[in-house]
Amino acid sequence: MDNTETLRQPHSSLTGGAGGGSSYFNPSFETMSREQIEALQLERLQKTVRHCMNNEFYRKKFAEAGITPDDIKTLADVRKLPFTTKQDLRDTYPFGMACVPLRDCVRLHSSSGTTGNPTVILHTQKDLDEWANQVARNLWMVGLRPDDVFQNSSGYGMFTGGLGFQYGAEKLGMLTVPAAAGNSLRQIKFIKDFGTTAIHAVPSYVTRLYEVMKEEGVDPRRDTKLKVLCIGAEPHSEEQRRRIEEMMGVKAYNSFGMSEMCGPGVGFECPEQNGMHFWEDYYIVEIVDPETLEPVPDGEIGELVLTTLCREAMPLLRYRTRDLTRVLGRSCPCGRNHIRLDRMRGRSDDMMVLRGVNIFPIQIEKILMQFPELASNYLITLTTDEENDNMTVEVELAQPTDDFKQLLDLEHEIRRRLKDEILLTPIVKLVAKGSLPVSEGKAVRVVDKRKVYQ
Amino acid sequence: MTIHQLSIFIENRSGTLIKVLDALKEANIQIIASTIADTADYGIYRLICSEPMRACDELKRAGVAVALSEVFVIAIDNEPGRAADAVKAFSQADIDITYMYSFLNENRGLLIFRTNDNERAQQIITANNMQIISEEALQSLV
Ligand SMILES: [Zn+2]
Prior knowledge:
By secondary structure, chain A is of the alpha/beta class. Chain A has two domains: 2-348, ANL, N-terminal domain (Rossmann fold, 3-Layer(aba) Sandwich), CATH 3.40.50; 353-453, ANL, C-terminal domain (GMP Synthetase, Chain A, domain 3). Chain A contains 13 helices and 20 strands. Chain A has helices at 3-8, 27-30, 34-52, 56-65, 86-91, 125-141, 160-172, 184-194, 203-215, 220-223, 238-248, 361-368, 404-422; strands at 105-111, 119-124, 149-152, 175-177, 198-201, 228-232, 251-257, 264-269, 276-278, 283-288, 302-308, 319-325, 327-329, 340-341, 352-354, 357-359, 374-385, 388-397, 427-431, 446-448. In chain A, the strands form five sheets. Chain A has a nine-stranded mixed beta sheet, with helices on both faces. In chain A, a hairpin with a 6-residue loop joins strand 7 and strand 8 (264-269). The longest helix of chain A is centred in the first third of the chain and has 19 residues, at 34-52. In chain A, 45% of the residues are buried. By secondary structure, chain B is α+β, with helices and mostly antiparallel strands. Chain B has two domains: 3-68, VC0802-like (2-Layer Sandwich); 71-136, VC0802-like (2-Layer Sandwich), CATH 3.30.2130.10. Classes of the chains: A alpha/beta, B alpha+beta. The A-B interface holds A 397, 399-405, 407-408, 429-435 and B 5, 7-11, 16, 37, 39, 41-42, 44, 46, 63-67, 69, 98-99, 114. Bound molecules: zinc ion (ZN). Zinc ion binds next to loops of chain A. Residues 270, 272, 277, 332, 334, 336 of chain A line the site of zinc ion (ZN).
């Protein structure tokens, strides 16, 4: 066996067996029974909590909560632990939540701070290996193998979607192209010249890429070897996903990641496309009521709370992600019993409150994507006139038309269906294709121009 | 016998019409007739021009949302009541005229219109001996 073959075997220290011809990258971990998963979680939780005692911030938090590592006797005891939040990360900026000496860290990712301090996440070499393993496991799960060519059309730098997928795809053994975001013509050239079979990008960028392909006369079905799209980082509706799949002629798999946990790879859809498996050998998943912080029953929407189980540099206990989702199940025809969560409804931070009604951008998108007459780009603008909040939805037309009545009927029908969904009537503006701003990173979907009265 | 008309979706903000006209100028396309129908937020700019196919490609290349549509052009005598006669013929046959615009050329009126049923409209035109203008004839006006 040559070296290359050895390197292509999945990482084995924590993660068990080899992929080989299997449908699993880490078979022994991916196919664990619920009992095995929970036993492993308890063992790793106890270890993590003890590890947190190396850090001043956690020692203080534990003391305030009146607990010690010895109080974690069952998995349910995770609820005795205090929550952590983004604010904690800001308050301890930059290194206050590190649980190992800085000399043991090899990587730092920072998120920009539009409000207050930015946040910093540190990684040891083992943290990076485990992160890459999660990403590789996901990519293997959606059918990618070392023969594939993976083009990562995601921002690099501090944005974890770049390096996260890069290391994961390399760990799986794929030829990996760090194309980064933007420069669509070059992206398309790479796809054709390198025989790219899989792309990772934010959903709005896939749409953009398709538009440019169309302009250039490139048919993704005929002229490329694409077979898989990995999309994520941007909340998107099932309708948007179906649309992307139809455009590109391949399956698009949704994923979840956040830099606080490591980055991409935390949750990923399996070929069943029925929710994302969150890897419970790496995380404890809780769904709580964002107001009371009490757990909600399976199937009910709540805030996702994650506890890391394998992180060395910066373990996070009961981290409030602000993302809203629900539990779909704990078994799956794919053979993985890791919890399945619904696509994110958006972050509780994204929620718009208009005239007392709670609205998520994703609800608007879901409706817009039902109209074949509309393109995928849209922009929601919130304004105030007098005392009233108003919502304007601008959406691009897929095709120009000569028929005025059709446009007016379309506007009317969009307004009607939006009202059914969000319970208030927005102003709908049809705009020409290509006239809304295109972002090469995460799409900006909401502009809030309301005056703040408080 | 219909001719090609370009229909362009334009938003009501400054610069959008200029973008279209500049693209046509760049491509050396001549406008024969045009009209804008609008609401508060957007309009449809309809135009008959030289080399409609090439014009359409050039506009698309310039990032303009353009559609090709089929319209009729008929010539009528330049005297009161002739347009009414023509429209009446269609209305009596229950054919809807979706929109219409017109221009004068060498002492005759040219009516440009779109119907909801081109096949039957063609029959009415023939039955009433209306003088229909072909694409070639129109292009010769340029
Ligand atoms: Zn599954």
